[in-house]
Amino acid sequence: MPGDYSMSDVLERLYENQQALQAAIMELTLLVEEQGAQEVGGNVRGALWTMGENAGHIKQGLARLKKLDIG
Length: 71
Prior knowledge:
Largest sheet: none
Distance between the termini: 10 Å
Structural class: mainly alpha
Strand content: under 5%
């Protein structure tokens, strides 16, 4: 099935992986913060914020790319 490996499909799956990793990292961050490592938690939250900011751009780019896909 060629459509399963189109560029937009592969990028969509990478985006979904990024979202899953963000959720997992946030769970670990909450655990670390509960143990008193507030500074570490703050650093991780900063990185997650950047990922969240970029997620919107990635999603918009994927939508445009899917419009260009043929098949």
